[in-house]
């Protein structure tokens, strides 16, 4: 209590830059006051940074932070992410990328619960900060394995639409990119004829396409497909810088889905309309963009979760589609990261301090971040 | 009131009769009694003699059969019947009649008849039917004799104490009977020793009397007597010899324990030191076990000995489920860690139950029942 009061007093009297300094020196080792990912460096490694509430609402209101972590952030009354090596590496690489060259594809891979999605969230935050247009899919498995609804496509015979999910994603896209979409240069390069009466004309702003998908849910899937194509074209022309961030990318190549035709036949992902759009934006044949993908065992069915390696998860087709890509391993906590995490939990009064606690928990969790979170969480 | 009075009268007359008898006794001494000995054999004695004879014949018969059987057995096993010992007999029986029965007493056996048939008391009275033992009419002469002896010892100690007090000699405080590591003979053993049935109340009386005797300041004087009726508590079990450490090429100390078992799981565990607390199970890390309680099983011996940062563990395990496998590895780790810690901690580990093998296995389902013990829902018809 005393601490909080003193901080407030500090905040009231001192100028902003000095205040930041004070907070930095006062704050603990496991925290950094630097909340801009572009300023994160290896000195911040294993430190937590707080995502401001407004940015969090903009980026992750419709997914992007795994559910269990989300619950924890609610308990902690703040959204903190740990700055870890994989995301730092990717951010450093993106900083030095030549955007005129073909797209670089980063693939995050690692065992279950090692923090791939949160690394992706960190990178997405960086993308927002640096003004990228963010094409972020929070979880492909949501579409392929837990889709809300499916119907045969009218515009593309033989394909299957997942319109409700697609419309949700369009809303997600719109809120995430509110800062970029105000740019008047983003115009559509071709006519889209939806039906006899409805059409979106060439030269209209890209928001019209999105709004159409949201208001006419029937065409949402096709809108997503069109949107991906348009963004690709716009990036090629240099109208925008794009960051493609897809979590559970291997879901697009895993043959067993839970999407069915009206005859209840299983549909392979290639026959789901939205897939085509996202495969298109993960090709190398465009520029002014960067792709950050994760491959995750959980995107495939339980019986096929044999390995966490990209080659296995993507399969031959997916691997060839992405080749060449930059694999980035996400490993278990190092000792430093583990201590930092425990310090954070203790600061949040989430665990009772006890002697020998860290070693025991480190052993029990195998330093796996998700397992540690589970062990420390309440019953 | 009247009845009481009558009873009193009767008592008085009885007493009078007794005194009369006693006064008469010395007059009619030896001669008539000897005559009686020759002629009169009491009915009880007669019955006893018959029973004794029968028993002796029976035992002789059984003994003969046993000897013949033993010789046959020795011939069957191709050994010399003359040197065939009881141990050989037991081995031969367990070889010829292998039995999976859990209860050892229920397995086939071949023992000398003296061990198989319960022993009987010898005659307790003479031909006249007069008991030898002065406590015969208590029904349990040996047991009450024991209590009597205890009181004798108590008195003896008290007398000695008085004598010492009179001489005002201080007791040597070092000479105290230490009974903390001992317990009294249990009821069954006492029954066997007295050859008499004893009920719980009587057994408690025995214990109380012994306690009282040992509490006396000079009870060490009757130590032999007390020790006769006490047994040492479970002695510090000699844990099997701790194996010597082995050293690999890099000079790393290691111990491998084979045949670690729990339920259906079998494991072999190698613990090596110095290490960093790394655990490898079938080539995987601790993630081999999904459940947290299985992981805790492995951690327990390491935390207990405070070596979790100093040793590496490599385990190969197969069979059974996760809980069994974890238990098997836990035992293997604890068993191997004995070589890395001192005797005191080994003893602590033993008391904590880390070195005890858990031989329990799943009990089979029984026909006519829902499970091993569970019955089907009972329905009248």
* Order of H and E elements of chain B: HHHHHHEHHHEEEEEHEHH
Average pLDDT, all residues of chain B: 85
Q: Approximately how much beta-strand content do the residues of chain B carry? A: 5-15%
Q: Which chains have the largest interface?
A: A-B, 9 and 13 residues
The biggest sheet of chain B, with number of strands, parallel, antiparallel or mixed sense and barrel status, is: 5 strands, mixed
Specify the structural class of chain B: alpha+beta
Globally, the shape of chain B reads extended
Radius of gyration of chain B: 33 Å
Q: Into which percent range does the helicity of residues of chain A fall? A: 40-55%
Short description:
Chain A is α/β, with parallel strands linked by helices and 379 residues long. Chain A is 45% helix and 11% strand.
Structure description:
The complex is a heterodimer of chains A (379) and B (381). Chain A contains 16 helices and 11 strands. In chain A, 44% of the residues are buried. Chain A has a 5-stranded parallel beta sheet, sandwiched between helices. With 379 residues, chain A is of the alpha/beta class. Chain B has a 5-stranded mixed beta sheet with strand order 3-4-5-7-6. A two-stranded antiparallel sheet of chain B has the order 1-2. Chain B has helices at residues 2-24, 30-39, 43-76, 86-96, 113-116, 141-166, 187-194, 200-215, 223-228, 292-304, 322-337, 343-351, and strands at residues 182-184, 230-232, 246-247, 253-262, 265-273, 279-281, 312-318. Chain B folds into 3 domains: 44-116; 136-232, no CATH class; 246-351, 2-Layer Sandwich (Ribosomal Protein S5, domain 2). With 381 residues, chain B is α+β, with helices and mostly antiparallel strands. The model of chain B is unreliable at 1-34 (pLDDT under 50). Chain B has 12 helices and 7 strands. In chain B, helix 6 packs parallel to helix 8 and helix 10 (292-304) runs parallel beside helix 11 (322-337). Chain B is 46% helix and 10% strand. Chain B is extended, with a radius of gyration of 33 Å. The two termini of chain B are 63 Å apart. The A-B interface holds A 111, 356, 359-360, 363-364, 366, 368, 375 and B 277, 279, 285-287, 292, 295-296, 299, 302-303, 308-309. Chain B: It comes from Nicrophorus vespilloides (Boreal carrion beetle). Chain B: Keywords: Ribonucleoprotein, Ribosomal protein. Chain B: InterPro entries: Ribosomal_Su5_D2-typ_SF (IPR020568), Ribosomal_uS9 (IPR000754), Ribsml_uS5_D2-typ_fold_subgr (IPR014721).
């Amino acid at each position: 209590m005393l601490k909080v009061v003193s901080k407030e007093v500090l905040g009231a009297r001192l100028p902003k830059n000095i205040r930041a300094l004070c907070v930095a020196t006062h704050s603990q080792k496991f925290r950094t006051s630097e909340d801009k990912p572009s300023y994160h460096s290896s000195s911040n490694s294993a430190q937590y940074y707080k995502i401001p509430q407004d940015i969090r609402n903009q980026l992750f209101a419709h997914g992007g932070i795994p559910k269990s972590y989300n619950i924890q952030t609610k308990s902690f009354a703040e959204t903190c992410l740990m700055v870890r090596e994989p995301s730092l590496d990717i951010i450093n690489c993106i900083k030095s990328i030549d955007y005129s060259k073909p797209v670089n594809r980063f693939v995050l891979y690692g065992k279950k619960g090692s923090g791939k999605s949160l690394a992706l969230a960190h990178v997405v935050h960086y993308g927002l900060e640096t003004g990228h247009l963010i094409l972020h899919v929070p979880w492909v498995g949501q579409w392929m394995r837990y889709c809300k609804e499916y119907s045969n496509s009218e515009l593309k015979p033989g394909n299957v639409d997942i319109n409700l999910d697609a419309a949700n994603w369009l809303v997600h896209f719109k809120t995430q990119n509110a800062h970029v979409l105000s740019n008047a240069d983003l115009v559509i390069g071709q006519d889209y004829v939806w039906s006899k009466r409805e059409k979106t004309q060439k030269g209209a702003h890209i928001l019209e396409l999105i709004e159409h998908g949201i208001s006419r849910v029937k065409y949402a899937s096709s809108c997503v497909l069109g949107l991906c194509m348009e963004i690709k074209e716009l990036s090629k022309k240099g109208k925008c810088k794009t960051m493609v961030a897809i979590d559970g990318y291997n879901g697009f190549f895993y043959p067993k889905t839970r999407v069915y035709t009206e005859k209840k036949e299983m549909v392979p992902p290639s026959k789901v309309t939205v897939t085509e759009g996202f495969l298109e934006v993960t090709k190398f044949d465009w520029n002014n963009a960067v792709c950050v993908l994760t491959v995750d065992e959980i995107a495939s069915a339980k019986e096929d979760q044999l390995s966490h390696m990209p080659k296995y998860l993507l399969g031959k087709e997916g691997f060839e589609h992405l080749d060449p890509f930059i694999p980035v391993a996400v490993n278990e906590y190092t000792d430093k990261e583990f201590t930092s995490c425990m310090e954070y939990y203790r600061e949040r009064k989430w665990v009772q301090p006890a002697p020998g606690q860290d070693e025991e928990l480190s052993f029990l969790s195998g330093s796996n971040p998700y397992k540690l979170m589970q062990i420390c969480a309440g019953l | 009131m009247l009845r009481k009075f009558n009873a009193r009268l009767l008592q008085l007359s009885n007493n009078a009769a007794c005194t009369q008898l006693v006064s008469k006794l010395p007059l009619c001494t030896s001669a008539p009694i000897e005559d009686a000995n020759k002629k009169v054999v009491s009915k009880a004695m007669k019955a006893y003699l018959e029973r004794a004879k029968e028993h002796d014949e029976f035992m002789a018969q059984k003994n003969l059969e046993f000897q013949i059987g033993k010789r046959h057995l020795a011939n069957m096993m191709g050994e010399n019947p003359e040197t065939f010992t009881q141990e050989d007999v037991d081995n031969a029986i367990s070889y010829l009649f292998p039995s999976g029965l859990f209860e050892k007493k229920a397995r086939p056996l071949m023992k000398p008849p003296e061990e198989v048939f319960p022993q009987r008391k010898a005659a307790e009275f003479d031909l006249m039917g007069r008991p030898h033992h002065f406590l015969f009419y208590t029904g349990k002469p040996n047991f009450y004799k024991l209590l009597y002896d205890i009181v004798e010892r108590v008195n003896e100690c008290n007398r000695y104490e008085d004598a010492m007090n009179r001489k005002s000699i201080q007791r040597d405080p070092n000479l105290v009977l230490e009974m903390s590591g001992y317990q009294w003979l249990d009821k069954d053993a006492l029954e066997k020793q007295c050859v008499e049935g004893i009920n719980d109340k009587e057994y408690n009386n025995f214990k109380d009397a012994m306690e009282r005797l040992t509490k006396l300041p000079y009870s060490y004087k009757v130590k032999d007597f007390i020790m006769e009726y006490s047994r040492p508590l479970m002695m510090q079990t000699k844990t099997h010899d701790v194996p010597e450490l082995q050293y690999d090429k890099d000079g790393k100390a290691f111990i491998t324990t084979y045949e670690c078992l729990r339920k259906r799981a079998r494991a072999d565990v190698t613990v090596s030191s110095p290490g960093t607390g790394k655990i490898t199970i079938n080539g995987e890390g601790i993630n081999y076990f999904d459940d947290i309680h299985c992981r805790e099983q492995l951690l327990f011996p390491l935390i207990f000995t405070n070596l979790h940062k100093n040793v590496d563990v490599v385990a190969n395990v197969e069979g059974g489920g996760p809980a069994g496998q974890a238990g098997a590895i836990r035992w293997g780790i604890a068993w191997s860690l004995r070589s890395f810690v001192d005797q005191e901690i080994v003893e602590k580990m033993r008391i904590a139950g880390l070195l005890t093998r858990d031989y329990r296995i799943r009990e089979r389902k029984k026909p006519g029942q829902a499970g091993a013990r569970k019955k089907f829902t009972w329905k009248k018809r």
